[in-house]
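Ops channel
N.P.: pipeline sanity check, posting one input/output pair.
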């Protein structure tokens, strides 16, 4: 599984969401179930949970969605082997 939150990822380098290692680990070990809830969690960790950042939220959501789709594909591939 490729975590969307590691500090070399598009979230950190591209969008400035460089979360503390403990928060990254927690979100990766027990990820929220949906793209929207994962996106909300990223904003909460950054202290930006008030949702006044609609364009930035859309960008973060796109990154999270890409990675979550990879997780699903990885799981399906593992299950078929």
């Amino acid at each position: 599984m490729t975590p969307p939150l590691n500090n070399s990822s598009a979230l950190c380098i591209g969008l400035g969401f460089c979360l503390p290692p403990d928060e990254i680990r927690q979100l990766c070990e027990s990820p929220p179930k949906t793209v929207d809830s994962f996106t909300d969690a990223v904003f909460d960790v950054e202290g930006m949970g008030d949702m006044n950042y609609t364009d930035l939220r859309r960008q973060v959501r796109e990154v999270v969605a890409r990675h979550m789709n990879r997780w699903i594909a990885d799981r399906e591939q593992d299950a078929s082997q």
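N.P.: looks fine end to end. The chain has four helices and no strands.
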